[in-house]
């Protein structure tokens, strides 16, 4: 790891001033992603501003029935909060499906919003990677792409967004609050993450000196009946091959409201607006769910299982289909469709029994 200067910030003002005074400085919260990246030589900040002591650790009920979640709330606390569990179970489930207990005890909500891809070439400084080294090329294109995205990719980058929590948030339409020396601004979560396009190294719409201070969830009654389903190579401590965050409200056999977001398949947390539009007002049947899933994945682009190289870093030793199936990601398209259908079917079944 390269030497770096360390600043401990006692309050938000000091933190944002310190970062604005030190170009290239990074905020350090739980450190579960940044420290790994620094160890691998992918991130090389000259200055690290420790924000772990800032008073951003509360989960507060808002007058309209929503929730305000401080950026330094630990993931384990978020998942255990009674209001989160009852009003937004999909969010609690998504967090519990991510990482390990130890990591969830350290990782923060703000850090989770900004965690970086787990594309193996991004972490390998000997590999070509446009996200780490703009203009260098992308070794994933003809290499191991099992973990890569099939929606929202570009000719420059096919990396998948890694966060489970962000998939649930994408379905819930929260607002993100950020602070800098220029003041506070708030914007929809849907505007936070960028698609890679020709500039995959620019991952969010945040300025470099902006600190995430909170996420605010709106009141959303359908979210009380929601679920997060994750398909992965191991039962725990593995990133999603495909995940689905869904909330479903059925009245008289018809879909009255639905929220649907996908993980493991998108270059950013993927809100399935096309599928939602088809589902609203449709019969709550497997046929409708299948049609919506097919529409959402119609633009998906997968890579052949024969183009990729076998790779022991994948953690995919249990993958079906032998050596070739480990390398490509085209299997995610049908797996994604089926996971959408299974998740909605389960929510519909539960709703009819309630
Ligand atoms: Fe880098 Fe993106 Fe290519 Fe992975 S897919 S090597 S992150 S440019």
UniProtKB/TrEMBL annotation:
Domain of life from the UniProt record: Bacteria
Pfam families xref list: CO_deh_flav_C (PF03450), FAD_binding_5 (PF00941)
InterPro entries named among the record's database cross-references: CO_DH_flav_C, CO_DH_flav_C_dom_sf, Diverse_Substr_Oxidored, FAD-bd_PCMH, FAD-bd_PCMH-like_sf, FAD-bd_PCMH_sub1, FAD-bd_PCMH_sub2, Mopterin_DH_FAD-bd
Record's keyword terms, sorted: Oxidoreductase
SMART domains named among the record's database cross-references: CO_deh_flav_C (SM01092)
Region named Disordered: 300-330
Keyword Ubl conjugation included in the entry's annotation: no
Limits of the FAD-binding PCMH-type domain: 1-222
Record protein name field: FAD binding domain-containing protein
Native source organism of the sequence: Streptomyces ovatisporus
């Amino acid at each position: 790891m390269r030497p770096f200067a360390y600043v401990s910030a006692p309050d938000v003002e000091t933190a944002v001033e310190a970062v604005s005074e030190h170009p290239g400085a990074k905020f350090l919260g739980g450190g579960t992603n940044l420290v790994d990246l620094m160890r691998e030589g992918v991130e090389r900040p000259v200055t690290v501003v420790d924000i772990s002591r800032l008073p951003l650790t509360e989960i507060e009920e808002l007058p309209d029935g929503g929730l305000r979640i401080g950026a330094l709330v630990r993931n384990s606390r978020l998942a255990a909060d009674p209001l989160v569990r009852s009003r937004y179970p999909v969010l609690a489930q998504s967090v519990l499906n991510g990482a390990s207990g130890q990591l969830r005890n350290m990782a923060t909500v703000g850090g989770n919003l900004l965690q970086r891809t787990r594309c193996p070439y991004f972490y390998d400084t000997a590999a070509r990677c446009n996200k780490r080294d703009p203009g260098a090329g992308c070794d994933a294109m003809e290499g191991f792409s099992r973990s890569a995205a099939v929606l929202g990719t570009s000719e420059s980058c096919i990396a998948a967004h890694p966060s489970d929590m962000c998939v649930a948030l994408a379905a819930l339409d929260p607002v993100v609050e950020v602070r800098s020396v220029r003041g506070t601004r708030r914007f929809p979560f849907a505007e936070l993450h960028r698609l890679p396009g020709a500039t995959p190294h620019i991952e969010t719409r945040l300025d470099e000196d902006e600190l995430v201070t909170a996420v605010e969830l709106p009141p959303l009654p359908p979210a009380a009946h929601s679920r997060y389903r994750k398909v992965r190579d191991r039962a725990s401590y593995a990133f999603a091959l495909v995940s689905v965050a869904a909330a479903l409200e059925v009245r008289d056999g018809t879909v009255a409201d639905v929220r649907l977001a996908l993980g493991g398949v998108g270059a950013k947390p993927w809100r399935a607006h096309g599928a939602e539009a088809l589902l609203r007002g449709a019969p709550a049947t497997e046929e409708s769910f299948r049609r919506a899933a097919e529409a959402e994945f119609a633009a998906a682009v997968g890579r052949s299982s024969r183009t990729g190289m076998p790779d022991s870093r994948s953690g995919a030793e249990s993958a079906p289909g032998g050596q070739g199936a480990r390398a490509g990601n085209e299997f995610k398209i049908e797996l994604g469709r089926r996971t959408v259908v299974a998740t909605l079917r389960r929510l519909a079944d539960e709703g009819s029994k309630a």
